[in-house]
Design brief:
It contains eight helices and two strands, in the order αββααααααα. It is an all-alpha fold. It has a two-stranded parallel sheet with strand order 1-2. The longest helix is centred in the C-terminal third of the chain and has 13 residues. The two termini are 16 Å apart.
């Protein structure tokens, strides 16, 4: 769901603020790096980004949310400022490494495992024609990050 996705993206980019308690901050505030649990959402003005991900209706009791996969979710990962900032921050975590080491390190951070030879070869080829930020965005958009098998 949206909360887990947002918290995961903040965690792998190295930005997640895990402090507890305190006043909530608007969910749409770019400076809000706290866990989504602590975000403030106006009941009458639900942000479009959370509507895309089946966010619970704040006006009613929602014992179970629908679970949908729609194109807007992929477009969010491709175009939203939130994801683009997380990709930039993930890439900055490895800015001082050689290209192959950066690929391995970013992949280990996101996937929690070492790459296969085929994956490494494909990623090296991708990075030869794209920036580290683009590679970080590809990793952040991957199903492997968002879904457990």
């Amino acid at each position: 769901d949206f909360e887990q996705m947002r918290d995961t993206l903040l965690a792998v980019s190295g930005e997640l603020d895990t402090s507890m308690y305190g006043r909530p901050t608007l969910l749409t505030d770019p400076g809000n790096l706290r866990r989504t649990l602590y975000a403030f959402v106006e009941r009458q003005n639900t942000p479009a980004m959370v509507q895309t991900f089946d966010f619970a209706n704040a006006d009613t009791s929602t014992p179970r949310r629908p679970n949908t996969t729609v194109p807007q979710q992929a477009l969010f990962a491709m175009n939203s400022e939130f994801v683009l900032h997380r990709a930039k921050d993930l890439a900055s975590r490895v800015h001082n490494l050689e290209p192959i080491d950066a690929i391995k390190q970013m992949s280990a951070i996101v996937y929690g495992r070492t790459l296969t030879e085929d994956e490494l070869r494909d990623y090296i080829d991708f990075c030869a024609h794209n920036t580290r930020e683009h590679f970080a965005q590809v990793l952040l958009m991957s199903n492997e990050l968002m879904f457990l098998d």
